[in-house]
Amino acid sequence: MQTEFMLFSGKGGVGKTSMASTTAVHYAEKGKKTLIVTTDPAANLSDVFEQEIGHKVTPINGINNLYAMEIDSDKATEEYKERSLAPMRELFDEDLVKVAEEQLSGPCTEEMAAFDKFIDFMDTDEYEVVIFDTAPTGHTIRLLELPVDWSKHIEESAKGSGQTCMGPVALIQESKKKYDDAIAILRDQSQTEFVFVMQPEETSLEETVRSSKDLAEIGIHTTKVIINGLIPEEETVVPFFKGKYDRQQNMIQKSKDTFTDLTIQTMELFDTELKGVEMFRKSAAKLFEGSDTNE
């Protein structure tokens, strides 16, 4: 079994978490063991699934096959430091371990730890589908650029001072292969889907186009766009909503003309808040309406 990875990104407030959660419920309902992980510090998976989740893999109530986790950057950093220092504690005295610990308190250790936790789930075959609900676009692209930078940084430092901003090369050398493997998976479109969520607005389309190009520069390609927040046609009896509906339809067509080689999915506005497994079942039925049943 090859795990399928799906990353959801987009501007803040476009509905990334709702669409990632909708997709997670869809795959779990199809019988696939699914994990949804958020890397967004402002994550609200606990709110949308109406149960406590936190920094641990937690089964979601009311649905089989679905698990969730919210990565806590502080806890991820402590776990990363401890994992790096554990081998040293068995071999060296306390003073030397303390020096190494100080070297692991560099400015990029926290970023490295967050990504380290992120790609932990790329190194397991426990789940059939792993969905990443990521932070707003700029942070996500930075997160995905990091392993490319780190891999080069570790390689160059190994030939020079032996010291990196993340600590001594000797402590993190093994990480290089892990980062290289993660980059390869992220770039492999047969294994990884990268989904942008946008609103049916000009500025949102421009942001999606720009971010998609930025991703392509590091070899990661957009595979799907979800246009979220559409006014249902049956609500257009009022001129205000009819005008807005028409503008949104034009924006859908413009998006299709822009992303000619990508799948475009759409999602209507609901008259209630999109949260809870039952609501996600309803939204999944709309989002995947007419999709390939063998996906």
Structural write-up:
The chain is α/β, with parallel strands linked by helices and 295 residues long. The chain has a single domain (4-72, 111-156, 185-289), classed as P-loop containing nucleotide triphosphate hydrolases (Rossmann fold). Helices cover 50% and strands 16% of the residues. The chain has ten helices and ten strands. The protein has helices at 16-29, 45-48, 73-91, 94-103, 109-120, 137-159, 169-187, 202-217, 239-258, 277-287; strands spanning 4-9, 34-38, 58-59, 66-70, 129-133, 163-164, 167-168, 192-198, 224-230, 263-268. The strands form two sheets. It has an eight-stranded mixed beta sheet, sandwiched between helices. A two-stranded antiparallel sheet has the order 6-7. Helix 1 packs across helix 10, helix 3 packs across helix 5 (109-120) and helix 6 (137-159) crosses helix 7. The longest helix is centred in the middle third of the chain and has 23 residues, at 137-159. The radius of gyration is 21 Å and the shape is globular. 35% of the residues are buried. The model has no long low-confidence stretch (mean pLDDT 85).
